[in-house]
Design a protein that fits this description.
single chain; about 160 residues; alpha+beta; Aminopeptidase; eight-stranded mixed beta sheet; 8 strands
């Protein structure tokens, strides 16, 4: 499936996002303790690849002791990795990746979208905490790494 991105400055007109699997294939009535589906978003224009976002869509359930049935307790999306080839950084592609993943997370009815910034991320890209903050994420310093989190409205 291919969808158009909201274009930022200096991004080709034909930049597209494709993804390799769909989290929406998880049956909403399947109540297992935890169901996960990975989704890779790829930004490209023709044959040029600009980067990718790796995410994980999760449904967590708990066993209701009264009914003996599993009850859904949480839907979330974790941003596992964002890679934008160095030549194409600082052009709005990462912001567009986040917008696209957030849109899918809302469709999935996720409560939150979140991720971790580990020391290696910060050595290579020290501006990442500010980037996530600018895009509406709460950024919490966890003493050596950061957790970024955005609560999603149920639109």
């Amino acid at each position: 499936m291919t969808e158009r991105l909201v274009r930022g400055h200096e991004i080709p007109d034909d930049l597209e996002i494709t993804y390799t699997s769909s989290a929406f294939e998880m049956h909403p009535d399947l109540y297992l303790p935890e169901v996960k589906q990975g989704v890779y978003y790829i930004a490209s224009s023709g044959r040029i690849k600009y980067g990718l976002l790796n995410s994980q869509f999760t449904i967590v359930s708990r066993l209701d002791p009264n009914s003996g049935d599993y009850q859904e307790t949480l839907r979330s999306v974790k941003i596992c990795d964002v890679i934008i080839w160095e030549l194409f950084r600082r052009r709005g592609i990462g912001t567009n990746f986040l917008k696209y993943a957030e849109e899918d997370a809302r469709t999935f009815r996720a409560n939150t979208i979140w991720g971790l910034l580990v020391p290696l991320d910060l050595v290579e890209r020290p501006w990442l905490p500010q980037f996530y903050s600018k895009n509406g994420y709460e950024v919490e310093d966890k003493n050596g790494y950061y957790e970024v989190r955005k609560t999603l409205s149920s639109i």
